[in-house]
């Protein structure tokens, strides 16, 4: 519905923008950026160093023996149960209780053994296979444990950093400056969200899923009356994503 000089969607956009500005000022720039940057760094470090930590845990026999014994026992019992049907792929799928939709994973796991097991359908010796799989699989488990350790340690450091940034914001001058940067940050986030929404709407209008001549969107955006002001109509074609797309499509 167009109200003479703006539409309902225009009003909603402005109202949400004001809310984002208020939230940005209250939460500030430091807290948001510390959280965002630290989470990326934590995930990156966890991926990079989980293998090294897993090897260290293995060397000191932390968790390793218990996991290795459990995996070995599971594989051995599965081999005994399957008998002549003991292919590498079947053993893995059964021993680790993989659901059907993950059966492909066992084939990938087999291929990592190089010449020992050439294909997933190759017949293999039970004891030899159980030892190979147990050692290999145990290290996968160890890497997951190491990843969790590094990630949790990073989260603890993040919490400490957030306490420090909150303490810094107790200073009125720092709080005002941080709040101003917080407003800018949250406006950027809001602009990105609005661009995504209007890009999708633009596609729907182009595909005639949404009518450009009748209906709420056509009326509220004043699509057929370009002489009338409408921020929503401008955003429909002028949002950042559509602008970038048009550079390459048109």
Number of strands: 0
Enumerate the spans where pLDDT stays under 50 for 5 or more consecutive residues.
Answer: 113-121
User: Ends: how far apart?
Assistant: 31 Å
Quaternary organisation of the protein chains: single chain
Helicity range: over 70%
Shape: flat
Summarize model confidence as the mean pLDDT.
79
Number of domains: 2
How does the helix and strand content classify structurally?
mainly alpha
Report what the structure shows:
The structure is a single chain. With 250 residues, this protein is an all-alpha fold. It has 2 domains: 109 residues, no CATH class; 138 residues, no CATH class. Helices cover 75% and strands 0% of the residues. The chain is flat, with a radius of gyration of 29 Å. The chain starts with 7 loop residues before the first helix and ends with a helix. The relative contact order is 0.15.
Tags for this model:
250 residues; 2 domains; flat; 0% strand; mainly alpha; single chain
Q: What is the element layout, followed by pairings?
A:
Blueprint: H1 8-27, H2 29-59, H3 64-82, H4 88-95, H5 103-111, H6 126-168, H7 172-206, H8 216-220, H9 231-238, H10 240-249
Write a brief caption for the model.
It contains ten helices and no strands. With 250 residues, it is mainly α.
């Amino acid at each position: 519905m167009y109200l003479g000089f703006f539409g309902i969607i225009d009003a909603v956009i402005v109202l949400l923008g004001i809310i984002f500005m208020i939230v940005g000022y209250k939460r500030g720039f430091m807290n948001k950026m510390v959280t965002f940057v630290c989470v990326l760094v934590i995930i990156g470090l966890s991926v990079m160093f989980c293998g090294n930590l897993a090897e260290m845990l293995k060397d000191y026999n932390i968790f390793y023996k218990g996991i290795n014994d459990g995996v070995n026992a599971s594989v051995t019992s599965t081999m005994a149960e399957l008998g002549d049907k003991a292919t590498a792929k079947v053993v893995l799928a059964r021993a680790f209780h993989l659901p059907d939709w993950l059966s492909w994973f066992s084939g990938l796991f087999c291929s990592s053994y190089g010449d020992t097991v050439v294909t997933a359908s190759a017949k293999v010796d039970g004891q030899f296979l159980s030892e190979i799989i147990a050692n290999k699989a145990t290290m996968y488990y160890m890497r997951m444990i190491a990843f969790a350790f590094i990630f949790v340690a990073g989260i603890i450091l993040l919490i400490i950093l957030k306490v420090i940034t909150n303490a810094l914001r107790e200073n009125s001058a720092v709080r005002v400056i941080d709040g101003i940067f917080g407003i800018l940050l949250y406006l950027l986030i809001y602009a990105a969200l609005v661009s995504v929404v209007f890009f999708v709407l633009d596609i729907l209008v182009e595909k005639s899923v949404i009518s450009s001549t009748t209906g709420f969107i056509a009326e509220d955006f004043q699509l057929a009356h370009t002489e009338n002001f409408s921020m929503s109509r401008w955003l429909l074609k002028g949002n950042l994503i559509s602008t970038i797309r048009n550079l390459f499509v048109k």
